[in-house]
């Protein structure tokens, strides 16, 4: 009888021990996973560090979109994937970021579309004078088949186009003269962010143009290497060009836009789940950029107006028409250089 009881209590002790061991095991496992803080062991995503370099400041649509991209990837991967964002050309300037991307020294960059036009002329579509009537039209084009066709063209150059981010319509600043007529540009030397067509735009206006790296532009304006430059209002404001420029004309003659580009070999090596996560982050960050673009542009204009350092001229409709007419030959010539399907999609977007 006593032996039976001893046996019973031994079984009970063993049962309790096993039960608590399994409970403890589960809970300690759970604790481990959460204290692991998603460092990859349970997120289903491979652990990796992704380097993202760009040249704009953080308080721009691109700067904020990059931070949103980072936030989505890191939070949804539970920390398994880290995105290290380097703004303001801290890592690479716009003169060497594409090379760095192709060498996989950086995995993602967001250069101005014009900087890709050396690979594919169709990227010049954003610089075609007065091509897109407003931001909504442009976004419709980017999100549709035209935008996709453009992005796909990058694959053959060891790059993957993930999407487009906004910068803003371009306006002209200079140090010499208030521009309200195309002839006012005669003899001016203008800094551009690159591309080929833009040189013909300025040649048609009697000006000359030269490509200068973004992070060297303030100095070039200050030293008088160039008389003026063209850029989005947000870049004009955040780069403090009003300190070294006297006149700003709101021409809105073309669009400065970014392409979000990844190194192809790196991208192709990702599993499907990880690619989907990155694309989710592209979508969210594009929305952030687009929402902020309008707001930051308005704030930039208010600050420029408030600074009283720069004289601002908004073209009247009649004045704008003179620029459209003066640049029509450039439009006609260069629209033939754009993939016809891409051009047709852009024109169709304008019709909506
Ligand atoms: C420029 O070079 O003017 C711009 O492309 C810089 C940028 O990335 O906003």
Can you give me a brief rundown of this structure?
The chain is α/β, with parallel strands linked by helices and 352 residues long. Helix content is 47%, strand content 16%.
The beta-strand count equals 11
CATH architecture: 3-Layer(aba) Sandwich
What name goes with the CATH superfamily? Answer: Bacterial extracellular solute-binding protein, family 7
Percent helix range: 40-55%
Name the hetero compounds present.
(2S)-2-hydroxybutanedioic acid
Order of helices and strands: HEHEHEHHEEEHEHEHEEHHEHH
Across the major sheet, the strand order is 7-6-8-5-9-11
Largest sheet: 6 strands, mixed
- Class by helix and strand content? alpha/beta
Inertia-based shape: globular
Distance between the termini: 93 Å
Query: What is the name of the CATH class?
Result: Alpha Beta
According to CATH, the fold-level topology is D-Maltodextrin-Binding Protein, domain 2
Please tell me how large the radius of gyration is.
Answer: 27 Å
Describe the structure.
With 352 residues, the chain is of the alpha/beta class. It is 47% helix and 16% strand. It has a single domain (43-351), classed as 3-Layer(aba) Sandwich (D-Maltodextrin-Binding Protein, domain 2). Strand 1 (48-53), helix 2 (61-76) and strand 2 (81-86) form a beta-alpha-beta unit. The longest helix is centred in the last third of the chain and has 36 residues, at 272-307. The chain binds (2S)-2-hydroxybutanedioic acid (LMR). (2S)-2-hydroxybutanedioic acid is lined by residues 55-56, 62, 94, 112, 167, 193, 214, 231, 235.
């Amino acid at each position: 009888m006593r032996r039976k009881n001893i046996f019973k209590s031994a079984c009970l002790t063993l049962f309790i021990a096993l039960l608590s061991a399994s409970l403890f095991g589960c809970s300690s496992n759970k604790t481990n996973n959460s204290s692991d803080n998603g460092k990859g062991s349970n997120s289903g995503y491979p652990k990796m560090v992704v380097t993202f370099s760009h040249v704009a400041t953080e308080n721009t649509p691109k700067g904020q979109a990059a931070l949103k991209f980072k936030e989505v990837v890191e939070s949804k991967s539970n920390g398994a994937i880290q995105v290290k964002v380097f703004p303001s050309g801290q890592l690479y300037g716009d003169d060497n970021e594409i090379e760095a991307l192709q060498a996989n020294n950086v995995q993602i960059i967001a250069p101005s579309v014009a900087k890709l036009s050396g690979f594919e002329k169709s990227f010049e579509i954003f610089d075609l004078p007065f091509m897109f009537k407003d931001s909504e039209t442009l976004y419709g084009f980017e999100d549709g088949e035209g935008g996709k066709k453009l992005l796909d063209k990058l694959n053959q150059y060891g790059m993957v186009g993930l999407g487009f981010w906004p910068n803003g319509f371009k306006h002209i600043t200079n140090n010499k003269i208030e521009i309200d007529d195309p002839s006012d540009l005669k003899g001016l030397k203008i800094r551009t962010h690159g591309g080929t067509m833009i040189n013909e735009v300025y040649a048609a206006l009697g000006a000359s143009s030269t490509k200068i790296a973004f992070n060297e532009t303030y100095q070039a304006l200050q030293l008088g290497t160039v008389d003026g430059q063209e850029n989005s209002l947000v870049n004009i404001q955040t780069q403090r060009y009003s300190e070294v420029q006297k006149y700003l004309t709101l021409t809105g003659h073309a669009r400065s836009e970014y392409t979000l580009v990844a190194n192809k070999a790196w991208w192709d090596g990702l599993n499907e789940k990880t690619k989907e996560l990155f694309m989710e982050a592209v979508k969210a960050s594009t929305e952030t950029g687009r929402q902020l673009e309008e707001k930051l542009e308005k704030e930039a204009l208010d600050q420029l107006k408030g600074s009283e350092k720069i004289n601002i001229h908004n073209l009247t409709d009649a004045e704008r028409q003179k620029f459209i007419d003066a640049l029509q030959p450039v439009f006609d010539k260069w629209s033939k250089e754009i993939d016809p399907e891409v051009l047709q999609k852009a024109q169709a977007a304008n019709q909506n």
